Amino acid sequence: MKRHLMKGSKVVFLALYLIFMVFPLYWIVITSLKPQKEIFSFPLKYWPSELTFENYINIIKISKFHVYIANSLLISLSAALIVCCIAVLSAYVLARYKFRSHRQVMLGFFLTQMLPGFVALAPLYLLMSRLDLINTRYSLILMYTVGLIPFSTILLKGFFERIPSSLEEAAMIDGCSRLSALIRVIMPVMMNGIAATFIFAFVQNWNELFMAVLFIDNESLKTLPVAMNSFVMKFDVDWGAMSAGTVLSVIPTIALFAIAQRFIVEGLTQGAVKG
Amino acid sequence: MAAKKGKRMLLVAIAGVLLLSVMAGCSSNGGSGKKVTLRMIESLTSPGRTTVLKEMISKFETANPNITVELISPPFDQADNKIKTILGAKQDLDVLEVRDLTVSEFANNDYLEPLNDYVKDWPDYATEVDVAKSVATLNDKLYFITNGMYQRQMFYRKDWFQELGIEPPKNYEEMVAAAVKLTDPSKNRFGFSFRGGAGANSVPDTIILNANFDRIDHEDSMFLTDGKTMYSTPEAKKAVDLYVKLYKEGSPKDSINWGYQEQVQAFTSGVTGILLQDPDAIPALMEKMDVSTIGTAPMPKGPSGKAFTATGGGGWGITKYSKHKDEAFKLISFLSSPEQNTYFAQKTALIPIHSTASNDPFFQTDLYKSLLEMSSKPDEFVNLKANTKYPGTGQWGQVAMETGQSMLLGQVSVEDTLKKWDQFWADQRANLK
Amino acid sequence: MKDDHPSIIGRFQAGFRNSPRGFIFFSLLPTLILVLAFTYYPFLRGIVMAFQNYQLFDLTNVRFIGLDNFKNIFNDPKFKHAAVNSAYWVFISLILQFTIGLTVALMLSKRFRGRGIFQGFVFYSWALSGFLIGLIWKWMFNSQIGVINDLLLRTGIIQERIGFLSDPNWAMTSVIIANVWYGIAFFAIMLLAALQSVPSELYEAGSMDGASGARKLFNITMPYIMPTVITTTLLRAIWIFNDPSIIYGLTNGGPAGSTHILSSLMLDKIMYGGDYGAASAIGIVMIGILLLYTIFYLSVTRSAKMGDF
What we know:
Structural class of chain B: alpha/beta
Shape of chain B: globular
Number of helices of chain C: 13
Helix content of chain B: 40-55%
CATH topology of chain C: MetI-like fold
Strand content of chain C: under 5%
Number of domains of chain B: 2
Largest sheet of chain B: 5 strands, mixed
Shape of chain C: globular
Largest interface: A-C, 107 and 96 residues
Number of helices of chain B: 17
CATH architecture of the largest domain in chain B: 3-Layer(aba) Sandwich
Distance between the termini of chain B: 70 Å
Number of strands of chain B: 13
CATH superfamily of chain C: MetI-like
Oligomer: heterotrimer
Structural class of chain C: mainly alpha
């Protein structure tokens, strides 16, 4: 009886939750498949009178969306990759060693999360301008990397702490250096943490708008959020293009989730914790 | 092993980034030589407009093979902030789009090169209309060449008006009455496309301005000839009462938070029957509505039987620190020639700047007709000089929005709200250098 | 493991083996340089404006004015209102995001049919830009042309349209709904990753004792993932507090300032007033509040210990 009740409430929660999550997506997808005139016609149509891909064709042919997607992929992936590499090292050190300025470093990382970024945008632009990085992809790769290092370090440190240090000590007795022990023995065990960090970093980069607007001038270097933002005009939001763009922009992220999910699971099953 | 490879690749990548940035640092803008690259930024961006602009620029480049133009088109939302940041950092920029909302700020910070000397040798300046010049002028200095002007007119739903057997309103009293009549919440139909969000000041300001018609200082349009603000009079109180009635009885409740986009969307979706808007809203109306249902009429008049028309505009200016000012003006004068400007105005649905363009058949069509009608009766529709000299011009929209919302919600009385508005402008005038 | 390439890496490795101090130093170096140069330096340059009369409109008149900016914002009733709103906004959003996120993560940690698709639906909201979330929800919440009112009317749940963003009684609830919708995915991802690192031996031992589902959750799972819980809730609270984009996009602080939080008020000062002095002053106050909160939060949760921080 109690079991049934539990199961019942679970189903209800799941259903409500899915409606809450899925409906906006449904609405965006349906809008993207509507002909222009129907998007704002009343009464609202929950299913288009005819399905059309004109919005998708337009944003690729006219707005050159493939260029922006490629830029965003390149920038977001490289920054996420660099972040993971740098943060793994610093997180490992902070998790395993006690040193004099340990506390200050951690505090310094935490504090970065509290800084309201808008205040720093103008000085940052000046800095980028001095470094001649304005209008280059490097500016964004650099800033996205920097922005995510502290959080990624804090996050990964938590994962490292859950792994017994006996693991790499054993490896080091076998003749591994610290670094290779880290890479060969510990990293595979915490693939789930790294995957989560990577996804997180990627998604943050993928969505960042303000620095991308500011640092990039050329059409051919623009990223996805900037391109989507330009569908908001003075008197009009081009919802056809906007919804089609939203759908296209979500696909790579979902694909990444799907791939990373395997890592998260594998990280556990092939982990050396058991062995 | 794979992980180790990744690590090495990372090191290479970091080294690469550093190296490239150093190289980029060395190769920036060598000598000016013969080829000149102009950097240009637009503010009122939309994808369609950018396409038109690029087309015009490429014509210019063909005619001037030694000049290339790099056009920067930031999203409309962020454009002015980006422009301000670029100017603040003195990052390379030659031509920029200056708006009536930003000209005073840019001029104040000495970002703009006055163009008075440049236009002396520009023959087309002779046919540019005075309004276009005055929008771009501050303290006798011409800071930009206007690329298009906007002026509001009334759009209304012809079919709804016919259904109820009413005529398009001629003054604000009639407009509010019509809006109340059209309103039928059960059919999700409302009279007026109200905008209580961004830019909420425009309708109350216009009603108040026209209510004080005879006493307005034409050189300083927020003020009366006696130096008080236009918000301080009993007429202003009446005008605002009318405005509150317009919201409460003739507009959707939700519109208290609407901005430009919702305001136009409500009209195009058939929720509202009257829209006061600039001509650049026309493309959105044409795209989404049955054009035969749209009527246009001149702006409503005040109690005096006359109305002020305010003309806004943006245009091309040159940065003070530009190294290629002559080339920059060459570009601007090309874009502003009667032929190019008329083309641009048509494509972006703005009013062209040259007197020669008004004969163009494009602007005789139904949706633009009322604008022409208004400009053909300068005694009834008196043009008021754009008043852009105050620092608070940009901030005013936000102040009017917040205090206006409190008033419309009934949290603050009309009198107290007017006192705040009066105070804001009195302070602006007192602090003006 | 033989070093078959006498490269730079090899030399570093040799160094690390001998001295952990060198290892610590070189591992932290890139992080420290980058964060100091590109986060702290521009921020300090920016924050100086809090003590200046720094109005974008008149940059020829920038001068130090001591604490005047602070006095002005403290005397502004809008500021107090926004501060109270901030607390409300963070607290409610965080609790809902966390509890729903944890529930979803617990569900996803077990295998079931359709898990992949379910996951996609959970995560996609995180994959949207902040401005886009504001835009989409603003559109859906519109009382005249929005789909939510239309849906509620058609299904007969409501008889009269609701001004989700225009009714001061609703506006805060509406922006929080959008924020919760956006933030659940963060907790779901992070907690799922943590849940999957719980060694299964722990559960095996637990089930031998015959522990029930709820007991298992509170006695085994939660203590194990506690460090992650503390870190993520703390950071998320900070981010929710600091991120103006959803409120800015949905209501712009309105109607009549009723949905302003501190960060949206700060953005407002920059975007409309061009008053960087006031904005930076608000920024400093925000940092102060967050620091106090962090110290409080960490001392309360110390018993559960978040690593050694």
